[in-house]
Amino acid sequence: MRGVAVRLTDSWREVLRRRADGAAGAWPQPVRQLLGEMAAASMLMQSNIKFNGALVLQIMGDGPVKVAVAESRPDLGFRCTAKVVGDVAPGSGLPALVNAGGHGRCAITLDPQERLPGQQPYQGVVSLVDADSASFGALAGVLEHYMLQSEQLDTRLVLAASDDVAAGLLIQRVPGEGGTQGAVATGADALEDFNRIAILAASLTAKELLELPTLEVLHRLFWEEKLLRHEPQTGVSGPRFACTCSRARVAGMIRSLGADEAQGILAEQGQIEVGCDFCGQQYRFDAVDAAAVFAAPGANPPASPTVQ
Ligand SMILES: [Zn+2]
Protein backbone atom coordinates (compact mmCIF):
# COMPACT_ATOMS: atom_id res chain seq x y z
CA MET A 1 0.00 0.00 0.00
CA ARG A 2 1.21 3.46 -0.78
CA GLY A 3 -0.05 6.70 0.66
CA VAL A 4 0.41 10.43 0.25
CA ALA A 5 -0.79 13.18 2.55
CA VAL A 6 -0.84 16.86 1.67
CA ARG A 7 -1.58 19.93 3.71
CA LEU A 8 -1.55 23.33 1.97
CA THR A 9 -1.69 26.31 4.32
CA ASP A 10 0.16 29.56 3.43
CA SER A 11 0.19 28.66 -0.26
CA TRP A 12 -3.56 28.03 -0.29
CA ARG A 13 -4.27 31.27 1.55
CA GLU A 14 -2.14 33.06 -1.04
CA VAL A 15 -4.35 31.70 -3.85
CA LEU A 16 -7.47 33.02 -2.11
CA ARG A 17 -5.88 36.36 -1.22
CA ARG A 18 -4.73 37.02 -4.80
CA ARG A 19 -8.22 36.32 -6.06
CA ALA A 20 -9.93 38.44 -3.38
CA ASP A 21 -7.56 41.35 -4.15
CA GLY A 22 -8.22 41.15 -7.90
CA ALA A 23 -10.90 42.82 -9.98
CA ALA A 24 -13.15 39.75 -10.02
CA GLY A 25 -13.23 39.44 -6.22
CA ALA A 26 -13.40 36.35 -4.03
CA TRP A 27 -15.04 33.15 -5.26
CA PRO A 28 -18.21 32.07 -3.41
CA GLN A 29 -17.51 29.72 -0.48
CA PRO A 30 -18.62 26.45 -2.18
CA VAL A 31 -16.27 27.27 -5.09
CA ARG A 32 -13.38 27.95 -2.70
CA GLN A 33 -13.98 24.58 -1.10
CA LEU A 34 -14.09 22.77 -4.45
CA LEU A 35 -10.91 24.49 -5.66
CA GLY A 36 -9.10 23.74 -2.39
CA GLU A 37 -9.99 20.07 -2.74
CA MET A 38 -8.85 20.15 -6.37
CA ALA A 39 -5.53 21.78 -5.40
CA ALA A 40 -4.93 19.12 -2.72
CA ALA A 41 -5.96 16.32 -5.11
CA SER A 42 -3.72 17.52 -7.95
CA MET A 43 -0.78 17.65 -5.53
CA LEU A 44 -1.54 14.13 -4.26
CA MET A 45 -1.77 12.75 -7.79
CA GLN A 46 1.37 14.58 -8.92
CA SER A 47 3.30 13.16 -5.94
CA ASN A 48 1.92 9.68 -6.55
CA ILE A 49 3.18 9.29 -10.12
CA LYS A 50 6.63 9.37 -11.61
CA PHE A 51 6.15 11.87 -14.37
CA ASN A 52 8.23 14.87 -15.39
CA GLY A 53 5.55 17.37 -16.24
CA ALA A 54 2.46 19.17 -15.06
CA LEU A 55 -0.59 17.30 -13.77
CA VAL A 56 -3.70 19.30 -14.60
CA LEU A 57 -6.98 18.43 -12.92
CA GLN A 58 -9.83 20.16 -14.70
CA ILE A 59 -13.61 20.14 -14.33
CA MET A 60 -15.73 21.39 -17.21
CA GLY A 61 -19.01 22.10 -15.46
CA ASP A 62 -22.56 22.78 -16.60
CA GLY A 63 -23.66 24.51 -13.40
CA PRO A 64 -22.48 27.96 -12.25
CA VAL A 65 -18.87 26.73 -12.29
CA LYS A 66 -17.99 26.52 -15.98
CA VAL A 67 -14.35 25.58 -15.50
CA ALA A 68 -12.24 24.77 -12.46
CA VAL A 69 -8.55 23.97 -12.84
CA ALA A 70 -5.77 22.91 -10.48
CA GLU A 71 -2.27 22.32 -11.83
CA SER A 72 0.67 20.82 -9.94
CA ARG A 73 4.22 20.47 -11.21
CA PRO A 74 7.04 18.10 -10.19
CA ASP A 75 8.73 20.85 -8.12
CA LEU A 76 5.41 21.03 -6.15
CA GLY A 77 4.56 24.47 -7.49
CA PHE A 78 0.80 24.68 -8.01
CA ARG A 79 -1.84 27.12 -9.22
CA CYS A 80 -5.61 26.99 -9.60
CA THR A 81 -8.54 29.01 -10.82
CA ALA A 82 -12.27 28.80 -11.52
CA LYS A 83 -14.66 30.57 -13.83
CA VAL A 84 -18.07 31.16 -12.29
CA VAL A 85 -21.12 32.46 -14.16
CA GLY A 86 -24.26 33.39 -12.22
CA ASP A 87 -25.17 32.80 -8.62
CA VAL A 88 -23.87 30.02 -6.41
CA ALA A 89 -26.31 28.99 -3.70
CA PRO A 90 -24.74 28.78 -0.22
CA GLY A 91 -23.88 25.19 0.66
CA SER A 92 -23.87 24.02 -2.97
CA GLY A 93 -22.22 20.62 -3.33
CA LEU A 94 -20.38 19.17 -6.32
CA PRO A 95 -23.53 18.23 -8.33
CA ALA A 96 -25.08 21.72 -8.00
CA LEU A 97 -21.77 23.45 -8.81
CA VAL A 98 -20.62 21.52 -11.88
CA ASN A 99 -23.14 18.86 -12.84
CA ALA A 100 -26.51 20.60 -12.74
CA GLY A 101 -27.51 19.22 -16.15
CA GLY A 102 -25.61 15.94 -15.89
CA HIS A 103 -23.05 16.95 -18.53
CA GLY A 104 -20.11 17.85 -16.27
CA ARG A 105 -16.75 16.26 -17.05
CA CYS A 106 -13.53 15.82 -15.18
CA ALA A 107 -10.24 15.64 -17.09
CA ILE A 108 -6.80 14.67 -15.89
CA THR A 109 -4.00 15.80 -18.17
CA LEU A 110 -0.32 14.90 -17.96
CA ASP A 111 1.61 17.54 -19.85
CA PRO A 112 5.30 16.60 -20.33
CA GLN A 113 7.79 19.28 -19.31
CA GLU A 114 9.78 18.88 -22.48
CA ARG A 115 7.38 17.88 -25.17
CA LEU A 116 8.82 16.07 -28.15
CA PRO A 117 7.82 17.35 -31.60
CA GLY A 118 4.27 16.25 -32.32
CA GLN A 119 3.80 14.80 -28.84
CA GLN A 120 0.38 15.44 -27.34
CA PRO A 121 -0.28 15.63 -23.61
CA TYR A 122 -1.98 12.50 -22.24
CA GLN A 123 -5.57 13.16 -21.17
CA GLY A 124 -8.15 10.98 -19.44
CA VAL A 125 -11.76 12.13 -19.10
CA VAL A 126 -14.51 10.84 -16.82
CA SER A 127 -18.09 11.93 -16.33
CA LEU A 128 -19.30 13.09 -12.92
CA VAL A 129 -21.79 10.25 -12.51
CA ASP A 130 -21.17 6.75 -11.20
CA ALA A 131 -22.09 3.42 -12.80
CA ASP A 132 -25.72 3.88 -11.65
CA SER A 133 -25.88 7.35 -13.27
CA ALA A 134 -25.99 9.05 -9.87
CA SER A 135 -23.93 12.23 -9.51
CA PHE A 136 -20.88 11.84 -7.30
CA GLY A 137 -21.49 13.91 -4.19
CA ALA A 138 -17.87 14.96 -3.85
CA LEU A 139 -14.65 15.20 -5.84
CA ALA A 140 -12.98 12.30 -4.00
CA GLY A 141 -15.52 9.83 -5.42
CA VAL A 142 -14.95 11.08 -8.98
CA LEU A 143 -11.19 10.63 -8.70
CA GLU A 144 -11.41 7.20 -7.04
CA HIS A 145 -13.65 6.16 -9.93
CA TYR A 146 -11.14 7.59 -12.44
CA MET A 147 -8.19 5.71 -10.91
CA LEU A 148 -10.08 2.45 -10.93
CA GLN A 149 -11.33 2.95 -14.48
CA SER A 150 -8.14 4.23 -16.10
CA GLU A 151 -5.40 2.58 -14.08
CA GLN A 152 -7.21 -0.37 -12.44
CA LEU A 153 -5.93 0.91 -9.12
CA ASP A 154 -7.95 0.67 -5.92
CA THR A 155 -7.70 4.10 -4.36
CA ARG A 156 -9.16 5.81 -1.33
CA LEU A 157 -9.13 9.61 -1.21
CA VAL A 158 -10.11 11.96 1.56
CA LEU A 159 -10.20 15.66 0.69
CA ALA A 160 -11.16 18.77 2.62
CA ALA A 161 -10.70 22.53 2.29
CA SER A 162 -11.46 25.62 4.32
CA ASP A 163 -10.26 29.19 3.78
CA ASP A 164 -7.10 28.34 5.76
CA VAL A 165 -6.20 24.79 4.79
CA ALA A 166 -6.55 22.55 1.75
CA ALA A 167 -5.68 18.98 2.66
CA GLY A 168 -5.92 15.43 1.43
CA LEU A 169 -4.97 11.81 2.01
CA LEU A 170 -4.53 9.25 -0.75
CA ILE A 171 -4.19 5.52 -0.17
CA GLN A 172 -3.54 3.21 -3.08
CA ARG A 173 -3.04 -0.50 -3.53
CA VAL A 174 0.21 -1.01 -5.40
CA PRO A 175 0.06 -4.01 -7.72
CA GLY A 176 2.99 -6.41 -7.38
CA GLU A 177 4.14 -4.96 -4.10
CA GLY A 178 2.63 -5.47 -0.70
CA GLY A 179 5.19 -6.68 1.77
CA THR A 180 8.82 -6.59 2.76
CA GLN A 181 11.58 -9.18 3.17
CA GLY A 182 9.95 -11.54 0.72
CA ALA A 183 6.67 -11.66 2.62
CA VAL A 184 4.61 -10.43 -0.34
CA ALA A 185 0.90 -10.37 0.30
CA THR A 186 -0.95 -11.54 -2.76
CA GLY A 187 -4.50 -12.02 -3.95
CA ALA A 188 -7.08 -12.17 -1.20
CA ASP A 189 -4.59 -11.13 1.50
CA ALA A 190 -3.61 -7.99 -0.37
CA LEU A 191 -7.24 -7.09 -0.98
CA GLU A 192 -8.04 -7.64 2.67
CA ASP A 193 -5.12 -5.41 3.67
CA PHE A 194 -6.31 -2.70 1.31
CA ASN A 195 -9.88 -2.90 2.54
CA ARG A 196 -8.79 -2.61 6.17
CA ILE A 197 -6.57 0.39 5.46
CA ALA A 198 -9.13 2.00 3.16
CA ILE A 199 -11.78 1.75 5.88
CA LEU A 200 -9.39 3.36 8.34
CA ALA A 201 -8.62 6.15 5.85
CA ALA A 202 -12.30 6.72 5.09
CA SER A 203 -13.01 7.15 8.80
CA LEU A 204 -11.02 10.39 8.72
CA THR A 205 -13.38 13.37 8.98
CA ALA A 206 -12.93 16.65 7.12
CA LYS A 207 -12.59 18.42 10.46
CA GLU A 208 -9.73 16.12 11.55
CA LEU A 209 -8.00 16.44 8.21
CA LEU A 210 -8.19 20.24 8.36
CA GLU A 211 -7.30 20.73 12.01
CA LEU A 212 -4.77 18.04 12.92
CA PRO A 213 -1.08 17.96 11.96
CA THR A 214 -0.38 15.26 9.36
CA LEU A 215 1.66 13.12 11.74
CA GLU A 216 -1.19 13.02 14.20
CA VAL A 217 -3.64 12.07 11.45
CA LEU A 218 -1.38 9.18 10.42
CA HIS A 219 -0.90 8.07 14.00
CA ARG A 220 -4.62 8.12 14.79
CA LEU A 221 -5.54 6.14 11.70
CA PHE A 222 -2.69 3.70 11.33
CA TRP A 223 -1.14 3.23 14.78
CA GLU A 224 -1.61 -0.52 14.52
CA GLU A 225 -0.05 -0.74 11.04
CA LYS A 226 3.59 -0.96 10.08
CA LEU A 227 4.19 2.48 8.63
CA LEU A 228 7.28 3.50 6.65
CA ARG A 229 7.35 7.25 6.38
CA HIS A 230 9.28 9.43 3.94
CA GLU A 231 10.79 12.71 5.05
CA PRO A 232 8.04 15.34 4.65
CA GLN A 233 8.62 17.93 1.92
CA THR A 234 8.07 21.29 3.56
CA GLY A 235 9.37 24.84 3.30
CA VAL A 236 11.28 25.63 0.09
CA SER A 237 11.06 22.03 -1.14
CA GLY A 238 7.38 21.75 -0.24
CA PRO A 239 4.21 22.73 -2.11
CA ARG A 240 3.93 26.41 -2.94
CA PHE A 241 1.87 28.70 -5.10
CA ALA A 242 3.66 29.34 -8.39
CA CYS A 243 2.31 30.64 -11.69
CA THR A 244 3.94 29.90 -15.02
CA CYS A 245 2.48 32.90 -16.85
CA SER A 246 4.91 35.39 -18.41
CA ARG A 247 4.97 38.45 -20.62
CA ALA A 248 6.51 36.31 -23.37
CA ARG A 249 3.58 33.87 -23.25
CA VAL A 250 1.06 36.70 -23.41
CA ALA A 251 3.00 38.13 -26.38
CA GLY A 252 2.60 34.71 -28.00
CA MET A 253 -1.17 34.87 -27.43
CA ILE A 254 -1.35 38.33 -28.99
CA ARG A 255 0.70 37.07 -31.93
CA SER A 256 -1.76 34.22 -32.43
CA LEU A 257 -4.63 36.75 -32.58
CA GLY A 258 -3.02 38.24 -35.66
CA ALA A 259 -1.94 41.81 -36.42
CA ASP A 260 -5.38 42.96 -37.62
CA GLU A 261 -7.20 41.80 -34.51
CA ALA A 262 -4.48 43.33 -32.30
CA GLN A 263 -4.74 46.64 -34.18
CA GLY A 264 -8.52 46.58 -33.71
CA ILE A 265 -8.16 46.22 -29.93
CA LEU A 266 -5.52 48.97 -29.84
CA ALA A 267 -7.75 51.33 -31.85
CA GLU A 268 -10.68 50.65 -29.54
CA GLN A 269 -8.98 50.53 -26.14
CA GLY A 270 -5.61 52.23 -26.59
CA GLN A 271 -3.78 49.18 -25.27
CA ILE A 272 -4.08 45.42 -25.07
CA GLU A 273 -4.57 44.30 -21.51
CA VAL A 274 -4.46 40.63 -20.51
CA GLY A 275 -4.90 39.44 -16.94
CA CYS A 276 -3.74 36.03 -15.71
CA ASP A 277 -6.67 34.08 -14.24
CA PHE A 278 -4.32 32.11 -12.00
CA CYS A 279 -2.22 34.76 -10.28
CA GLY A 280 -3.91 38.07 -11.13
CA GLN A 281 -0.89 39.54 -12.92
CA GLN A 282 -1.91 42.17 -15.50
CA TYR A 283 0.04 42.42 -18.75
CA ARG A 284 -0.32 45.62 -20.79
CA PHE A 285 0.83 46.14 -24.38
CA ASP A 286 0.59 49.61 -25.92
CA ALA A 287 0.94 50.29 -29.65
CA VAL A 288 4.75 50.28 -29.47
CA ASP A 289 4.83 47.01 -27.48
CA ALA A 290 2.37 45.41 -29.89
CA ALA A 291 4.42 46.49 -32.91
CA ALA A 292 7.46 44.85 -31.27
CA VAL A 293 5.46 41.62 -30.79
CA PHE A 294 4.77 41.42 -34.50
CA ALA A 295 8.20 42.68 -35.54
CA ALA A 296 10.18 40.14 -33.50
CA PRO A 297 12.25 37.79 -35.69
CA GLY A 298 10.35 34.60 -36.35
CA ALA A 299 7.23 36.11 -34.82
CA ASN A 300 5.13 35.72 -37.94
CA PRO A 301 4.58 32.81 -40.21
CA PRO A 302 6.10 33.92 -43.51
CA ALA A 303 3.42 36.05 -45.13
CA SER A 304 2.81 35.81 -48.83
CA PRO A 305 2.89 39.22 -50.50
CA THR A 306 0.20 38.25 -52.98
CA VAL A 307 -2.18 35.90 -51.15
CA GLN A 308 -4.04 37.31 -48.13
ZN1 LIG B 1 -0.13 34.00 -13.72
How would you characterize the overall build of this protein?
This protein has 308 residues and is α+β, with helices and mostly antiparallel strands. It has two domains: 230 residues, Hsp33 domain (3-Layer(bab) Sandwich); 49 residues, CBS domain Like, CATH 3.90.1280.10. The protein has ten helices and eleven strands. A six-stranded mixed beta sheet has the order 6-5-2-3-4-9, covered by helices on one side. β2 and β3 form a beta hairpin. The longest helix has 20 residues. The termini are far apart. It binds zinc ion (ZN). Zinc ion binds next to loops.
Concise summary:
The protein is α+β, with helices and mostly antiparallel strands and 308 residues long. The chain is 36% helix and 22% strand.
Topology:
Layout: E1 2-8, H1 10-21, H2 29-48, E2 53-60, E3 65-72, E4 77-84, H3 94-98, E5 105-112, E6 122-127, H4 139-151, E7 155-161, E8 166-172, H5 187-202, H6 206-211, H7 214-222, E9 240-241, H8 247-257, H9 259-269, E10 272-275, E11 282-285, H10 287-295
Parallel strand pairs: 4-9
Antiparallel strand pairs: 1-8, 2-3, 2-5, 3-4, 5-6, 7-8, 10-11
Bound molecules: zinc ion.
